């Protein structure tokens, strides 16, 4: 019993000694077949590398097995290398070792471990082969084209020479076949990065990313496994036509998270939000009536946009470009990229609008029109435009006057100004009225000639008998032209012998000329009443008086000839 206790105590007291003894004598046991050993390089000769591999004797490895592609030696004394006993042969007391065989076996062991544990390893793409790529993972492996990337790759040759992460999807050590996938490795990496990114991203935070792709509407930024959209309007406070004006693929940028939908994994980004909004202090920098300089960035049908600074644009409306109303399009005055000076008319920071004016740089011609023109004076100008109600005549730059259709002729009934005037024609007119406050100028063309009606009323009166021509018939009478532009009306009741009720029964005919007597005149209404009957009665009366006068004269002559009456003294 005592002996057993002594043995137990001895075992407990010397466990480390047993292990040390095993370690000390283990190197005397011969290595197993195809066992990969680790040895330490002791020295190098011209032909061999001497290695201590932990047994009774040292080994040698042909130096060619440690030469690189350029012939350089890849080891030096002290390096630990993998070796195997090569057929148990000895040369000059050294055991012949093989580093190449050991390296191949070690590679396959590592590949099997990576395959079983689904580890990501590194491989160098050697080049294009049928159906995919050849990849060096220690041994030559095959990567199908469909496994090159999560997205379809149009040019597999672009991967040649690159070190890429791969996962082994198929391995047959006996046949020496290895199939790898870069797609699975990249997807795993993306998933890990995405999870990390989603855990930290939130609205309002500032993130960094790499520009992945550019489109007309914005840029896609890789934030780490998840893409964010940077819209073109959120890149800069200034005007940008295309994201490529500021960004390039591969650029690393900082941006602010504007919106984040965790469920849909959608992120909206903004770069300009990292800078102060220039509109917040725009009223202080651009007060009303201030003169400013800017660059024309866009010209539209209604005006031109001028960039005063990045992010601040003002609009020069077409009506604020010149005092003249004849301009048809803003491009006649400004063009894109022109440097212009303008006057600030209005500032609306909340609406992000600034109204600018060009014409305000020049004096307003309407402010001095009263001193340069007077009512009744004759002016000359060019017919700029015509409407149904009249014609606009430009008498100087920025000053247009309106000739109403009723002021084109005293005598003719004008329905449209084109009956008298032509666009672009130079004409004279009389100023009828001036309203400088409303920028209105009334002109008249007919006032250049005397009013035919006024002259007629000055030279004629009721009772006068005139010769006239019937110009048209109406249901109630005939209109008679008495002078150029002056007409009178002879009612059918003033026509002798007319008893009908229709114009067709009238004894008067268009184009015939008669003598009419004026029976009514209204200068204010420009109306003249005529009577063919009264003219005929007057004519009969005149004839009777003439007959009576002739008859009396003849009787007197006969009596004097017969001596019955003495001749009247002359």
- CATH architectural group of the largest domain: Beta Barrel
Tell me the number of structural domains. Answer: 6
Structural class: alpha+beta
Averaging pLDDT over every residue, what do you get? 82
Q: What distance separates the N and C termini?
A: 210 Å
> Unreliable runs, pLDDT <50, ≥5 residues?
6-10, 17-28
DSSP summary: helix tally: 8
Q: Could you describe the largest sheet, including whether it forms a barrel?
A: 5 strands, mixed, barrel
CATH-defined topology of the largest domain = OB fold (Dihydrolipoamide Acetyltransferase, E2P)
Structural shape? rod-shaped
Q: Oligomeric state of the chains?
A: single chain
Q: Give the number of DSSP strands.
A: 30
Instruction: Tell me the fraction of residues in β-strands, as a range.
Output: 35-45%
Sequence of strands across the biggest β-sheet: 1-2-3-5-4
> In the CATH hierarchy, what is the superfamily of the largest domain?
Nucleic acid-binding proteins
CATH secondary-structure class of the largest domain: Mainly Beta
Q: In which range does the helix fraction lie?
A: 10-25%
Return Rg in Å. Answer: 58 Å
């Amino acid at each position: 019993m005592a002996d057993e206790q002594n043995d137990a105590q001895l075992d407990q007291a010397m466990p480390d000694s047993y292990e040390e003894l095993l370690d000390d004598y283990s190197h005397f046991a011969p290595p197993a077949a195809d066992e990969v050993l680790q040895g330490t390089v002791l020295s190098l000769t011209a032909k061999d590398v001497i290695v201590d591999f932990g047994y009774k004797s040292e080994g040698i490895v042909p130096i060619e097995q440690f030469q690189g592609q350029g012939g350089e030696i890849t080891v030096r004394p002290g390096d630990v290398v993998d070796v195997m006993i090569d057929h148990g042969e000895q040369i000059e007391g050294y055991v012949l070792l093989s580093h190449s065989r050991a390296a191949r076996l070690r590679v396959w062991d590592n590949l099997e471990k990576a395959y079983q544990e689904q580890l990501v390893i590194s491989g160098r793409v050697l080049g294009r082969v049928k159906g995919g790529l050849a990849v060096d993972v220690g041994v030559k492996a095959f990567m199908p084209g469909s496994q090159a990337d999560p997205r379809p790759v149009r040019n597999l040759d672009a991967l040649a020479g690159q070190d890429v992460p791969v996962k082994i999807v198929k391995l047959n050590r006996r046949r020496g076949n290895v199939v790898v996938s870069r797609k699975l490795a990249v997807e795993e990496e993306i998933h890990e990065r995405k999870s990390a990114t989603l855990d930290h991203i939130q609205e309002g935070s500032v993130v960094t990313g790499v520009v992945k792709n550019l489109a007309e509407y914005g840029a896609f930024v890789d934030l780490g496994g998840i893409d964010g959209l940077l819209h073109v309007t959120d890149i800069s406070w200034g005007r940008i036509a295309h994201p490529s004006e500021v960004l390039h693929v591969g650029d690393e940028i900082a941006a602010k998270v504007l919106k984040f939908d965790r469920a849909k994994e959608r992120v909206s980004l903004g770069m300009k939000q990292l800078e102060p909004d220039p509109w917040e202090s725009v009223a202080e920098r651009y007060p009303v009536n201030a003169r400013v300089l800017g660059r024309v960035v866009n010209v539209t049908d209604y005006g031109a946009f001028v960039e005063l600074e990045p992010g601040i644009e003002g609009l020069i409306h077409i009506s604020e470009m010149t005092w003249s109303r004849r301009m048809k399009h803003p491009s006649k005055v400004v063009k894109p990229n022109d440097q212009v000076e303008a006057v600030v008319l209005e500032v609306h920071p909340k609406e992000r609008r600034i109204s600018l004016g060009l014409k305000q740089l020049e004096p307003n011609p309407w402010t001095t029109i009263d001193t340069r023109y007077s009512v009744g004076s004759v002016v000359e100008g060019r017919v700029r435009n015509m409407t149904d109600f009249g014609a606009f005549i430009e008498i100087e730059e920025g000053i247009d006057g309106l000739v109403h259709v009723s002021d084109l002729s005293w005598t003719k009934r004008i329905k449209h100004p084109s009956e008298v005037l032509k666009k672009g024609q130079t004409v004279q007119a009389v100023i009828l009225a001036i309203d400088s406050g409303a920028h209105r100028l009334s002109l008249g063309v007919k006032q250049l000639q005397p009013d035919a009606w006024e002259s007629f009323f000055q030279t004629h009166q009721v009772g006068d008998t005139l010769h006239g021509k019937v110009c048209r018939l109406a249901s109630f009478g005939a209109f008679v032209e008495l002078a150029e532009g002056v007409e009178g009306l002879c009612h059918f009741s003033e026509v002798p012998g007319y008893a009908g009720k229709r114009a067709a029964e009238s004894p008067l005919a268009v184009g015939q000329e008669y003598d009419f007597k004026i029976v009514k005149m209204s200068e204010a209404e420009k109306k003249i009443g005529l009577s063919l009957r009264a003219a005929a009665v007057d004519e009969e009366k005149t004839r009777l008086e003439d007959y009576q006068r002739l008859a009396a004269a003849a009787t007197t002559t006969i009596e004097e000839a017969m001596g019955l009456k003495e001749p009247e003294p002359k």
